Amino acid sequence: MSPELLLTQALNGLAFAMLLFLVAAGLTLIFGLMDVLNLAHGSFFMLGAYLGLTFVRTLGNFWLALALVPPLVALLGLLVERFLLRRLYGRPGHLDQVLLTLGLLFIMADMVHWQWGAAIQSLHPPPGLDGTTVILGSSFPVYRLFVIGFGLALALVLWLLLDRTRWGAVIRAGVHDRQMVQHLGINIDAVYSGAFAFGCGLAALSGVVGAPIVGLYLGLDAEVLILALIVIVIGGLGSFAGSFLGSLLVGQADTFGRALLPEFSMFLSFGVMALVLLFRPGGLLGRGRL
Amino acid sequence: MSVLLVCAMILAAACGSAGSGTTGGSGASTGNGQAGGGGEETGPTGEPFKVGVLLPYSGVYAALGESMTNAMELYFESIGWQAGGRPIELIKEDTEANPEVGLRRVRKLVEQDEVDILTGVVSSGVLMSIRDYVDEAGVFLISSNAGAVPIATDRKSPYIWLVSYTNAQPPSALGAWWYENVAQEVFLTAPDYQAGYDSTGAFRETFEAAGGRVVGELFPPLGTTDYAPYLTQIREANPASIYAFFAGSDARNFILAYEQYGLKGQIPLAAAGFMFDETTLAAVGEAAVGHYHSMHWAYTLDNPVNRQFVPAYEERFGVKPDLYAVQAYDAAQLIAHILNELDGDISDDEAVRQVILNAQLDSPRGKLRFDPERHAVRQTFYILRVEKVGDDVTNVVVDSVEDWMWPPTE
């Protein structure tokens, strides 16, 4: 494998990793803080992508769509948390939440099918970012470089939010010890709602940004969900740095897997996860307990 | 916890693949011959003739399912939805281009709906999967697209007839021409399923026979949306030319990525027609300019049937017809022809076969006749190049190969 090929595939993998990170970050936040396994998380990604498509078509501007869609989906997430999920807090085990979010997955998938149809659609990158550039002698699409930059910038922003703001402190505390936070008199309900909405908004953001790369098709929700789950298991449930690390690993495994062993690419991602779990059952940066 | 997660993942994986097809997409469309005003004309008096239509209405080939259904309805409308004294009824089922789903749907059509004849089938994978069932059930299947080579050779059936093509015809017609006119080396790529292997294999046969050399091959999974990793690999091999077969959304994604990764204009691309059909050209525009392919129909073909078919289709549906529409139109024609020749009675299998073998169809492609050995039609293949003509991106005929059949018969 030549250095140019290695670099190009690594960049492809990095772009994909950034998309995964945005989805996984929301998923791990919701799980770590609220102990909720949101199986509809991939559906919020898909919804964001399709809404992005519609907004771009009607408004004619990609950036406007990028600005409007995530808050819209975050609002939907807020409503879901407030009126559906909240009823299930305090119930033992995770089965009820799994069933609820699974039901949501089915409903949202059908809604997308009903509204946008079954044909596979594509979204062109915005003008200005739809060209090709040359890196070390090989052509590479500009848009994927944008995705890499955007993802890294957002990762930085998220880290700053978590580390430097009061909100971030509350969330980190909540992830670490939920009951303690409640006993401190903080309005845990508001924190939960906000976190869930934020997570969904992140997933939708990833959907809009990712649509020009992954395409829009039914089944996108499940594919993204599976990869995001693998990412957070590898990274450690509840760990943001872990989801960043996990995304890098899975992004590369998936990209190189598809190039080198097309029939076994999904196997490679699961294989990495199995390997990690073998040595660190709680994930790379997890708390080390099952 | 991990156990729960693993269960969740398995659930999600199962739901993901089933979720897109739960609606099933079955529907029936019927038309009755409309008697003009006074009821003087006699309408069809026989039992409804049920045509089972197996097409993908979702997934990578959804656009094809739609254009093929349009064309069949266009034809049946033009004959008043009746032939051989019987009203014609279409019962549609969504195969999702998935072999397992296709098998379930064909069972439903034959056993539950009791259709009289079957047509459609886009995916060669589906055709291979239903071949045994259709053969045992003894129901005729007029394939209006899928042309898996085994169905024309060692897995032929007296009930399955390809009014479309065999997967080997388009690429083999191009192979020798490509060697003589463009490049002596080629890299092959196609989706990882029956049609992909058939297509690249047939191109390889005539290309190598002419003296060419295949330098590599790569088969991405069917339905891939992101061709970045694959094109990067192919670019690394730096071949003198590339032969590709992709259709539906795969074609669109591949062509766009081909341009984005700098291969357009650097490495000549050859394809078997389906990559540059009218529907795909509408989606990719100028990204396709300069590429070559072979197809058994061209939008600009100048014969009486095409001159009438194209404007009729455009007026009725508002978009250009594509190759798939033409094939479905011909399938509808053949079905009506069978009914007319046998006065609506298709119970005698041998009689039906004789009608098919003697049929000389007037297709927008020109005249078609079936090859008795292959159960597929012999036809002319055009070598086309995509060019920008004014504001329009369209196919221009560069050369042609007549009365072509592959695999060849004696």
Biggest beta sheet attributes of chain B: 9 strands, mixed
Instruction: Please give the largest β-sheet of chain A.
Output: 2 strands, antiparallel
Q: Which chains make the largest contact?
A: A-B, 56 and 51 residues
Instruction: Indicate the percent of residues in helices of chain A.
Output: over 70%
Number of helices of chain A: 11
Report Rg of chain B: 22 Å
The parts of chain A where pLDDT drops under 50 for at least 5 residues are none
Indicate the multimeric state: heterodimer
Terminal CA distance of chain B: 66 Å
Judged by helices, strands and strand pairing, the structural class of chain B is: alpha/beta
Mean pLDDT of chain B: 86
Helix percentage of chain B: 40-55%
How is this fold's topology laid out?
The complex is a heterodimer of chains A (290) and B (410).
Chain A (H helix, E strand, L loop, with lengths): L2 H32 L6 H19 L2 H22 L11 H22 L15 E4 L2 E4 H23 L1 H11 L1 H6 L4 H27 L5 H16 L4 H21 L4 H15 L11
Antiparallel strand pairs in A: 1-2
Chain B lengths: L1 H18 L7 E4 L18 E7 L6 H17 L3 E2 L2 E9 L4 H14 L4 E4 L3 H14 L3 E3 L16 E3 L6 H13 L3 E5 L4 H16 L3 E6 L9 H10 L4 E3 L3 H13 L8 E4 L5 H7 L7 E4 L8 H14 L5 H19 L7 H10 L1 E4 L2 E6 L4 E14 L2 E13 L6
Parallel strand pairs in B: 2-4, 2-5, 5-6, 6-7, 8-9, 8-10, 10-11, 11-12
Antiparallel strand pairs in B: 1-4, 3-4, 12-15, 13-14, 14-15, 15-16
